[in-house]
Amino acid sequence: MSAQQLAEKRLEKYRDILLKEKEETQQIINAINEIQKRGAKNGNGDLSAYSQHQADLGSDTDESERRVYILEKELNNIKMINSALKRIYDKTYGICEICGDYIPANRLKIIPYAKYCIKCKEEDEQRKRKRI
Ligand SMILES: [Zn+2]
């Protein structure tokens, strides 16, 4: 097997992992949307009820806020997965977007949509922390 074939095989493997992860993420999003919709049907959907909820931050609101938080996180994951899939098609997958080095395979195993190597990721986080 040539080096190129080997590289393509590797990309295919990551593409499968990403597609599976995307499917699972989509299922979580669908499930949350379903719960939110049901909540709306139970009469919590109109805006007056909503503002009432806001006033007396009950446990219902906590639940709903938690769902919104998860939903946002999962939607963000989908975005990351989609952009990783795009990098697979562009054959730039596994290369750090900042320094151009290869991202180690054991890092991609944990975070298949990683776009930075560990060094650049840490520097990026340090920069963000300083800004706060
Ligand atoms: Zn890097």
Task: Describe it.
With 132 residues, the chain is an all-alpha fold. It has a domain of 71 residues. 78% of the residues lie in helices and 0% in strands. It contains five helices and no strands. The longest helix has 42 residues. The radius of gyration is 20 Å and the shape is flat. About 7% of the residues have low confidence. The site of zinc ion has 8 residues, from helix 5. Zinc ion binds next to helix 5.
Architecture blueprint of SSEs:
Blueprint (H helix, E strand, L loop, with lengths): L2 H42 L2 H9 L3 H32 L14 H6 L7 H14 L1
Bound molecules: zinc ion.
What attributes does this structure have?
binds zinc ion, flat, mainly alpha, 132 residues, 5 helices
Q: List the total number of helices.
A: 5
* Unique ligands: zinc ion
Strand content: under 5%
Could you state the order of secondary-structure elements as H and E? HHHHH
Q: What share of residues is helical?
A: over 70%
Shape: flat
How would you briefly describe this protein structure?
This protein is mainly α.
